[in-house]
Amino acid sequence: MEFNYLTLDDFSLRDKHVLLRLDINAPLDPTTNQILDDTRIVSAKPTLDSLKQSMVVVLSHQSRPGKEDFTSLQQHAALLQKNCSQRVSFIDDVMGPAAREAIKKTKRGEVLVLDNVRLCAEENLEDKGEKLAKTHLVSRLAPLFNLYVNDAFATAHRSQASLVGFPHVLPSAAGRLMERELAALKRVLERPDRPSTYLLGGAKIEDKVPVIENILKAGKADHVLVGGNVGKVFLKATGQKFNDAEEEELAKAPEQVQEAKSILAKHRDRILMPTDFGTLDDGMRVENSISKLPRAGKCLDIGAETAEKFTRIVRQSKTVVASGPMGVFEQDGFESGTKIILEAMADSSAFTVIGGGHLAGYAGILGIAGKFSHVSTAGGAMLSLLAGEELPAIEALVRAAKRHRM
Ligand code: 3PG
Ligand code: MG
Hints:
Layout: E1 17-21, H1 39-42, H2 45-50, E2 55-59, H3 74-82, E3 87-90, H4 97-105, E4 110-113, H5 129-132, H6 136-141, E5 147-150, H7 161-169, E6 172-174, H8 176-190, E7 196-200, H9 205-217, E8 223-226, H10 228-237, H11 244-250, H12 254-267, E9 271-272, E10 276-281, E11 284-289, E12 298-302, H13 304-316, E13 319-323, H14 336-347, E14 351-355, H15 357-366, E15 374-375, H16 380-386, H17 392-405
Parallel strand pairs: 1-2, 1-5, 2-4, 3-4, 5-6, 7-8, 7-13, 8-9, 13-14, 14-15
Antiparallel strand pairs: 10-11, 10-12
Helix pairs in contact: 7-17, 9-12, 9-16, 10-12, 13-14
């Protein structure tokens, strides 16, 4: 894997108008909408430091239209101000006359944060760069800049205008975080020390189940351990019965269950599923083996026996990648599966990588984030990359570099 894109070192940056695509999408408190974790905002600092002599305009997103946490980027801008030496301002416009006027007025050493780019309907379409280069978003903003910089590694698996449209028409470079993420993940992708173990959990099954197939097909994993909802989907694929409420939930994901079935048919020997769960019965955690699940409460964590089996494999591995928690660790009594596994990874001398906002955030809360070889700011993008899939935003940077060199 050689990424032949340009970096900030390839350009003179002084007095240049730079459009910087970040991913500062953050988890928000559901009642107050306050930012709960600023990891991605803090991670933008190295790139902002490199751009101190430029006129910087930041483009980013928060959640998606229709979701509760689809907000403006005002508080993100305030946190960005705390994390860089430039003066940061915010405008509640993305591409209208007010935004364009403010962009033109941005001075050297200043950073202007535009509002949530997903406020523009065009940004929510996925298509090829040449097509998205013709959107109003790109055609209105691109003429105001000398350079496009993409540091949004966590969104690199999306083929949206702000990620693939601008690099089609502007000289383009990868930012510092993009470089750092790819350098660390390259090691896992190209020559993982064996045995190599992937722990996949969390709630978003539609993002995870398809990449498991690719990870196994690419021969990158000796073991895939599944927890959280991903674990339930795999168990369902074997004919496991759950209580009525969970059966109802799983009935909404027939595609993923079918996919899990076909993955198991091909790679059964490399997949380890939970054999017990921590369930919520009468307001308390109870350990239940999978044979008891139809009459048990909701499965909110892997069970103690499963956690023990999983950690044994983690301890024997030389590469461990984890994305997504093993259960609902936010709920009292149901954190132990995720905690035990994170601690086993932190104590191991293997090359360890964790990704996904929730898991990385929890490692931070436990005070062990510094003990992993790499903590990725990405969830879905990291897994897509490790599964050998092409990341459209990175491909767009590579194509821009080719054009630049011609
Ligand atoms: C993420 O947090 O997953 C990234 O910011 C990408 O967002 P998306 O999954 O809504 O495209
Ligand atoms: Mg996502």
